[in-house]
Each structure stands twice: as C-alpha cells, then as structure tokens.
TrEMBL record:
Protein name: Uncharacterized protein
Location of the region described as Disordered in the Swiss-Prot/TrEMBL record: 598-725
Alphabetical UniProt keywords: Carboxypeptidase, Glycosyltransferase, Hydrolase, Multifunctional enzyme, Protease, Transferase
One CC-aspect GO term: outer membrane-bounded periplasmic space
Length: 725
C-alpha cells in the first residue's frame, strides 16, 4: 500500500502553470493620458502583487483567520483531508483542506468539480511537493493573489481597493487587514450589508484574537480595534461606467478590438491601457456642455436635445476630450462616434478646399445675392431649379467674405463650379465618411451641409487643416502594455495621409479665421486670451441642429447639438438656436480652459494659391457728378436700391451691352444670354427662368417634360435656412 502511495506521489508533478482556468486572470487597467490616473478597470478584478509589498501584519491576519500554524506545519493535515475526502465521496457536506497550502493546491492546481478520492490524493501530493519546492513566503504569495474576497474581487490588493479604497496594499491598516482576513471564510457574505453585521463582527474579532494568540498583537491593541469595524466603502462594481467614463472605456475597448486585442484578452490579461484622454480637458468638456447655458444643461432638460463634443490633437489624431452623452449608465448611445447629424455650414470648408485645389483663389468672386436659383446636377432626378437664400443680400463677394458671413448662394455656386463629386473626395480625404455623402452627390444642398456627419469626423477633418493639410485617423489609445506596465504588449497602427497641400490648408485657415473675428458668424467663439482661432458655424433647416467646429494650431474641437424629434431648438434669451449663438459659446467655454497654459501659436500666413476666378462680375463703381449724388441705402435690399447702387451689373459703356461668350471674360455683360449654344447652356444653369433658357417646344415622344411645360408644378428647393448663423 505504501509502495503504491509512493509511486503515485512520484508521478504527481507540480504543474509549471496553474491548471484551474482563470486563477491568474487580471483586469485590464485604463489610464488617462498622464499614465497615472485611472479611468477604470475591465475584467477579472485581481491585481498580482509581490509578497514583499504586503505588510507582515496583513500576512499574519490571514494566518490568524485560516491557518495559524502555517509557518511550522508540513503543509497538510492528514486528519482534515481524510475527513473531507470521506464526506465528499459519500455526499456529505463539502469540506476543503485545512491548511493554506492545501487550499492553494485545490484552488490553484486542481479541478474543484472533481470529487474523487484520486483528486484528494493529488491535492495532498501537490501540497507536499509545494512545501518541498517552495518556501513559505512563495506559497503565501500565490495564495494571497488568488483567494476570492467577495464583491467580484480576487487577491488581497483588489480587495483592499474595493472595500477600503486602498490602492497600494503596503498602506493598508491593521484593522482593515483583519476584516479582510475574516471575509475569506465566506466571501459571499458582504460585511457592508447590515444583515451581515453580526457575522462580520464575529469574524473580525476572531482574527484579532488569533493575532493575540500568535503573539502578533497585544491585548490592549486588539481591544482598541474591537471597539468598531473599520469603515467600508460602498460596492463600486456597478459604477465603473458611470458618467463620461463609460463612453471613454467603451470607445477604448472597441479600438483595442480593431487592433486585434480580443475582449477575453482585455478581461483576463491585466493589460495596462494608456489612453489619449486628458483628465483636465474631460472636466472642461463636461462643464462647457452642462454649465455654459443653464437652460440647456443636459442633466436637467428634456432628453430630446442631445449634445456631442470632441477635441482632437492636430498632427497626431489623439482624442483629448469627449462629451458622449448625459451618463453612460442611462444612455449608451455615443453622441461623438455614433450620431450622424446634418452638418450645416460646417461642411463649407470642404467646398472651399476643393476650389483651392482646382486652381481658384480666395479672391475668386461669387454671387452673394439672395435669393438665387440654380439648376445643377440635381435636375437629373428632381425638378430643375432650386432656390437658395442668405441672411442678407451681400452682392458680389470673394470666398473669404463668403466664408466669414456663411453666404449660401456663394457656396452653392462654388460647389457647382468645382463639381460635387470632387467636393466629396476632398471631404473623404479629410476623414468624412464618403458613404454618407454619396447619396447627395447630385444635390447642391451638399455644399450647405445637408449630409449627416459624425462630430468626431468634423473635429478630425478640421484638425487636418490645422496640421498643414495632413489627416490623422482619430485615436483614443496611446499605448498598450503588459501587466508590469513596462513591456509593450502590441504596437498600435493608425493611418495618416496628405489630404491637402500646406499652402491650401493655410488659405483655408486664413478664411476660417475671419469667421471668428468681429463681424463673422462665429465671433462668440473668440478665446479670452486672444490667441488665433479658425472655425465655422453651422445651422440646419428650422434650427433642428447647430454646430461649431474650430481650432487653434494645437487643438481642434467640435460642438454639435440637435433635437432628436427634428423640431426647432428654442432657448429663452437666444431664440432659435444657431451655431454662432450656442455651440460657439460652448466651444469657447471648453477651449478657454483647455488651452490655458498652452503656448500661443500663430497660424501660417495665407499662401494665396490659385488664380482669381470671376463667377460673377462686379458692377463698375459709379463716379458721382457734382450735380448728382447716388442715393444708396446700405440697409436696403438690392431690388430696392437705385439702379446705380445695385450689385447686378448694368448695360452701359465698355462693351457692357455684349454678352459673355467664354468663362472669365471681363469685357462683357454676364446678365445677357450668350449667343454661343454651349455658353448659353452653362449660363442657363444659373438663370433657369430667363426667357432665353425656356424651350417653347413640346417634348418629343418619350422625352421628359421641359421646364416651360411644368412651370405650374415646379418644385422649388429652398436651402436658404441651412445656415442662419
């Protein structure tokens, strides 16, 4: 018999790795960009610590609770294991080995669901071999890092954090260590639950008495601790995702998975995930959205109005701050990455960049009159002729003025001239999802932001302007390390590309700076320290959604708000919400603290790329005679002005009675229909209701109706309120 036992002992090795699944699993820790402050933990709540970091009195407390003779016993109790094996085999109450070494052998190396005598002998043999091959400190270290403490925590460090908020086990207090040790016997009885108070008190005092018996604590000291239990924290497991942390953690996990790191890896490997989120900027984002305009505090108003804020670092794509929603525990929908909202006039910079790419300059002239009718590609599938209006009649303006005042007619004209497909390509090169723009490729409303865009796309796209035309994929991960927080676990890969030349980006930025200067639609976004700002406002039809996207050289940010019921947003004191009134102020409220202490950098000067294109010819400046002074009234609309004050060119001298037969011809009157058929077709695109553009003939068999045959049923497309900033 003894010979058989000896053979079995010899054939039972101590496994190099634990055989019980999950016994060494650890939660992954997510940090802010500083690498010190935690955002939260995901997965198995265990932190492996070295025995040298666990104070001797904390080690002794566990021995007092579980195995007071641990330092001197052989690692097993023959009587206890025989009794436990018999009860388990006969269906009696389950019992485990009485020593810490035996508990370790069972929990760490054995199959706890195997109730056979063979398993019991394996535990015994492993216990003996553990004692032979390891010293007591090594055995205790394994035990303290694997034992379950309740509240979904494993190991003494995770338990100290959960129950007492102790982040460094070396700083745990004696009374706290005693209560933790008492929990081990029945970890499912939470000592923080009032109904378990009597049991927790009994276990706590049992440990203190044991410490006295072992000579590790005096009677006086124990009596002092017995007066009351140490103060416990409330259970925190459910609060990991509370507030903005849930949006940060969820985005980080999705990005990890896209980098090839699985959810199981995250839950079990104890990774140290360093994110790009700046803790101070996160606070600034929350305060900006919730405190700038009290009447719009998302925590108090109806859920029908939603907000999204995101800040991206130019030149890296690192996301520094977000406001993803009111509270992740209440609403998991991410307003930064998941929402798709009509962008309004914040889309116009992509039209401007396209015009500059195609050789036109900021000095190019456009028609800023209102209303104006256009016949563009949309006529292929929709009735021809759509009306575009502005907030005012601006006459002939260059692209800088058109940008500063967000002039719709100028931008529709520009977009049709350069081609809507090219505009889509430019926006796509700067990170805007082209599949969201393609449905509008034949609709001139694309130029005014009728397509839906995610806030993170706008922030990253504008960051491309700030980065000299180079687009960087937005990212929330800085690095991923192993559990030692030193060794790199995986190299992260992100894309970047040259979307625009630095000169074109400089010219776009120059135009966007005018928006934030006095007189621009986004003047409310000017920062307190006077540093240069470039940006753009945006407001959609009926003020259903409004935006402000802007940047300084080191940081780009976007603020978006919208009514989920597609109704007008109205705020007392502000009226119908526009991008220049509310989002611009929220943007400023965020950027002022976000840029505090940041070097004040200047934007590059304009490069003045391209050549001036005159898509409309300015009227000659009249010279008043001594006997007649023009009675111009600047606040009157164009139609109410005397002829000599109107923006529309008038026939007169210098060949003004001659029509323009070719593009950019200056010695002619652009309001007269050309005689060349090709030139007339182009001219009629902008004047579909002019008599010269109307075909009086009936359509032939199978032909679609011609404009004159549907004048009574023509649908007028009114894009005049896509931007009332």
């Amino acid at each position: 018999m003894f010979a058989l036992v000896g053979v079995a002992y010899a054939q039972t090795p101590v496994p190099d790795k634990p055989t019980v699944k999950g016994v060494q699993d650890q939660a992954s820790i997510f940090y802010y960009a500083d690498g010190k402050r935690e955002i939260g933990r995901i997965g198995m709540r265990r932190e492996i610590v070295d025995i040298s970091k666990i104070p001797p009195y904390a080690q002794d407390a566990v021995l007092a609770a579980e195995n007071r003779s641990f330092r001197t016993d052989p690692g097993f109790s023959p009587k206890a294991i025989t009794r436990a094996a018999w009860n388990n085999m006969t269906g009696g109450a389950k019992q485990g080995g009485s020593t810490i070494t035996q508990q370790l052998a069972k929990n760490y190396y054995s199959d706890i669901n195997n109730r056979t005598m063979k398993r019991k002998f394996q535990e015994l043999f492993i216990s003996v071999k553990l004692e032979d091959e390891m010293d007591k400190s090594q055995i205790l270290e394994l035990y303290l890092n694997t034992i379950y403490y309740g509240r979904n925590t494993y190991g003494i460090q995770a338990a100290a954090r959960e129950y007492f908020g102790v982040t460094d086990i070396s700083k745990i207090k004696k009374d706290q260590a005693a209560l933790l040790a008492g929990i081990i016997q029945n970890p499912n009885r939470d000592p923080g639950d009032p109904k378990n108070l009597a049991w927790a008190t009994e276990r706590y005092q049992y440990v203190l008495n044991g410490l006295v018996t072992m000579g590790k604590m005096t009677e006086t000291e124990a009596a002092q601790y017995k007066q009351q239990l140490p103060k416990l924290r409330k259970r925190s497991a459910d609060n990991v995702y509370a507030g903005q942390k849930g949006y940060m953690l969820r985005r980080a996990v999705l990005e990890l998975e896209r980098q090839g790191i699985t959810e199981q890896d995250i839950s079990t490997m104890g990774l140290r995930v360093h994110t790009t989120f700046n803790a101070e900027m996160m606070v600034a984002a929350k305060n900006a959205v919730e405190k700038t305009i009290p009447a719009l505090n998302p925590q108090k108003i109806t859920k029908k109005i939603e907000f999204g804020l995101v800040a991206v670092e130019p030149g890296t794509g690192k996301v520094r701050a977000i406001y993803g929603g009111r509270d992740y525990l209440k609403d998991q929908f991410d307003n930064v990455w998941a929402s798709q909202v009509q962008s309004g006039s914040t889309f116009k910079p992509y039209v401007l960049a396209t015009a500059l790419k195609e050789g036109h300059s900021l000095r190019s002239l456009t028609d800023g009159g209102t209303p104006r009718y256009f016949l563009g590609p949309e006529a292929k599938t929709s009735p021809p002729g759509f009306k575009v209006r502005n907030g005012g009649n601006y006459g002939v303006v260059d692209l800088v003025k058109a940008t500063q005042m967000s002039i719709n007619t100028s931008y529709v004209q520009t977009a049709l001239q350069v081609g809507l497909p090219d505009v889509i390509k430019t926006a796509g090169s700067l990170g805007v999802a082209e599949d969201q723009l393609e449905p509008d490729k034949d609709k001139a409303g694309l130029a005014l932001g009728q397509s839906s865009i995610r806030p993170v796309e706008q922030a990253a796209g504008y960051a491309g302007f700030a980065a000299g035309g180079r687009y960087y994929q937005p990212r929330v991960l800085e690095k991923v390390l192993k559990s030692d927080n030193k060794t790199r676990y995986k190299t992260l890969k992100y894309t970047n590309r040259a979307a625009l030349s630095p000169d074109i980006a400089a010219d776009v930025t120059y135009a966007l700076q005018s928006v934030v200067k006095p007189g621009g639609t986004g003047a409310a976004a000017a920062l307190a320290d006077g540093r240069p700002v470039a940006g753009k406002t945006g407001t959609t039809n009926d003020n259903v959604a409004s935006w402000f996207s802007g940047y300084v050289p080191q940081l780009s940010a976007t603020v978006s708000m919208w009514n989920v019921d597609r109704k007008t947003m109205f705020v007392p004191g502000y009226g119908a919400v526009t991008g220049g009134a509310v989002p611009a102020r929220i943007w400023k409220a965020f950027m002022d603290p976000a840029t505090r202490g940041m070097e004040v950098k200047q934007f590059p000067p304009p490069a003045n790329v391209g050549q001036q294109t005159k898509w409309v010819t300015p009227k000659p400046t009249p010279t008043p005679s001594a006997s007649q002074t023009p009675n111009c009234r600047p606040n009157r609309p164009d139609w109410a002005q005397p002829p000599e004050c109107r923006d529309e060119p008038r026939p007169g001298d210098d060949n003004q009675n001659k029509p323009c037969e070719r593009p950019n011809q200056q010695d002619c009157n652009p309001n007269l229909p050309p005689t060349d058929p090709d030139a007339l077709e182009q001219w009629c695109r902008f004047r579909p209701f002019h008599q010269a553009c109307r075909d009086e003939e009936s359509p032939g068999p199978g032909e679609p109706p011609r404009p004159n045959n549907r004048t009574n049923t023509v649908q007028t497309y009114d894009y005049g309120r896509l931007d009332d900033d």
